[in-house]
């Protein structure tokens, strides 16, 4: 009788083991985040936008997106469209070689303070944003 109980416990453990393997993974929900990056009303035509979570409980995955030639960007987090709800610092980085080619090797058309972790840009990702909520208006 006792062996039967031990056998049942072992079988239950073996059946549940594959499900337990996924328990350590972080699961999070995202909401769509799309906006436009401009400098003095003109679109930034290359670069990357990175959202740095300010909440210590936020997922550790990076939320970022490429800036298109029309200034628009779409954020993705760990391969998922969008970003988790919460407050973020927002960094805008030059677009590498594409930015340098378009600008003839010049510096980015905006103040480099936006590329720093101490960026003055902040945004809150919300479930129902107003139009233009994620637009980023930079200065030279």
Structural class, by secondary structure, is alpha+beta
> Would you tell me which CATH topology applies?
Immunoglobulin-like
Please tally the β strands and state the result: 10
The backbone outline, from C-alpha atoms, is globular
Strand percentage lies at: 25-35%
> Are there runs of 5+ residues with pLDDT below 50, and where?
2-24, 97-103
The top-level CATH class is Mainly Beta
Mean pLDDT reading: 79
Structure annotation, total helices:
2
H/E series, N to C?
A: HEEEEEEEEHEE
Sheet with the most strands? Answer: 6 strands, antiparallel
Q: Mind telling me which CATH architecture this is?
A: Sandwich
Give the fraction of residues assigned to helices.
10-25%
Number of domains: 1
Q: Could you tell me how far the N terminus lies from the C terminus, measured between alpha carbons in angstroms? A: 80 Å
Mind telling me the C-alpha Rg? 22 Å
Strand order across the largest sheet? 7-6-4-3-8-9
Main traits of this protein?
140 residues, alpha+beta, Immunoglobulin-like, 19% helix, 29% strand
Description of the molecule:
With 140 residues, the protein is an alpha+beta fold. 19% of the residues lie in helices and 29% in strands. The chain has a six-stranded antiparallel β-sheet, with no helix packed on it. Strands 1, 2, 5 and 10 form a four-stranded mixed β-sheet that branches.
Strand and helix layout:
Layout: H1 2-21, E1 34-39, E2 42-43, E3 48-53, E4 63-66, E5 72-74, E6 76-77, E7 80-81, E8 86-93, H2 96-102, E9 122-125, E10 136-138
Parallel strand pairs: 1-10
Antiparallel strand pairs: 1-2, 1-5, 3-4, 3-8, 4-6, 6-7, 8-9
């Amino acid at each position: 009788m006792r062996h039967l109980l031990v056998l049942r416990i072992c079988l239950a453990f073996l059946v549940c083991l594959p499900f337990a393997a996924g328990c350590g993974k972080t699961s999070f929900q995202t909401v769509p985040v799309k906006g436009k990056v401009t400098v003095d009303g003109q679109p930034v035509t290359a670069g990357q936008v990175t959202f740095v979570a300010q909440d210590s409980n936020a997922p550790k995955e990076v939320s970022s997106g490429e800036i298109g030639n029309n200034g628009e960007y779409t954020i993705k987090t760990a391969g998922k469209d969008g970003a988790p709800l919460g407050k973020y610092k927002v960094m805008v980085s030059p677009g590498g070689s594409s930015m340098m080619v378009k600008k003839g090797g010049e510096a980015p058309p905006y103040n480099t303070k936006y590329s720093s972790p101490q960026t003055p840009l902040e945004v809150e990702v919300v479930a129902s944003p107003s139009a233009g909520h994620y637009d980023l208006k930079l200065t030279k």
